[in-house]
Specification:
By secondary structure, this protein is an alpha/beta fold. The chain contains eight helices and seven strands, in the order ββββααβααααβαβα. A seven-stranded mixed beta sheet has the order 1-2-3-5-4-6-7, sandwiched between helices. Strand 2 and strand 3 form a beta hairpin. The N and C termini lie far apart (45 Å). The C terminus is likely disordered.
């Protein structure tokens, strides 16, 4: 159920923000424009404290969120569902443990989580699907994602994915390696050209 909502003024434009709660689970939606007609752009986004609030350059989560909001505001039709699923749903403490393993043993993100004997991506998107339906989002949607698991769960939830909206942004060397491991070991649909040296940030290291 929608517990509360208001208008959020952002650098990209105005969004309607709503807090959704189902039992002990909750998420936040950011919607813009007429989402009742076909073709809304949807982004299911898992929280990343380090990137989004503490300016870490070890992943591209903040870039994904910003680009999604920018595109949705520009087209004036879409929703970001913000999910509190740190560390691919394994929690902040376990995420920090995996990061320390990466640092000490020079593992990639996938192998580090695997070494802790966790499922590689246990996230579920039931509450996101319920939130989209509460908002009245038309069943015909477009997605901002490179994760095929998100598409499958949305389709199981009754949505028809009519296409994928691509986003590009510069990334540093660390993020390129991070994205390569997600493509090769988690099946994320990331184009090779996206990982080229062309997409380099000024603070690359």
């Amino acid at each position: 159920m929608i517990v509360s909502s208001t208008i959020l003024n952002t650098q990209f434009g105005d969004f309607k923000v709503a807090y959704h709660e189902v039992g002990k689970n909750f998420c936040v939606s950011l919607s813009c424009g007429d989402i009742h007609r076909p073709g809304s752009i949807i982004r299911l986004h898992s929280s990343c404290l380090f990137s989004e609030a503490l300016h870490s350059i070890d992943c591209d989560c903040d870039l994904q969120l910003s680009k999604a909001m920018e595109i949705i505001a520009k087209e004036s039709q879409g929703v970001v569902i913000y999910l509190y699923q740190e560390g691919r749903g394994l929690g902040l403490a376990n995420k920090i443990k995996a990061m320390e393993i990466q640092r000490i043993k020079h593992m990639d993100t996938v192998d580090a989580f695997k070494s802790l004997h966790f499922d590689l991506d246990p996230r579920r998107y039931g509450i996101a699907i319920k939130a989209l339906k509460e908002l009245g989002v038309n069943e015909h949607i477009r997605l901002i994602t490179n994760n095929p698991r998100k598409r499958k769960q949305l389709e199981k939830g009754g949505f028809i994915v009519d296409g994928k909206v691509g986003i590009t942004y510069p990334v540093n060397k660390i993020v390129r390696e991070y994205l390569k491991s997600k493509r090769e070991k988690l099946g994320h649909e990331i184009e090779e050209k996206f990982l080229s040296e062309r997409f380099k940030l000024p603070f690359s290291r």
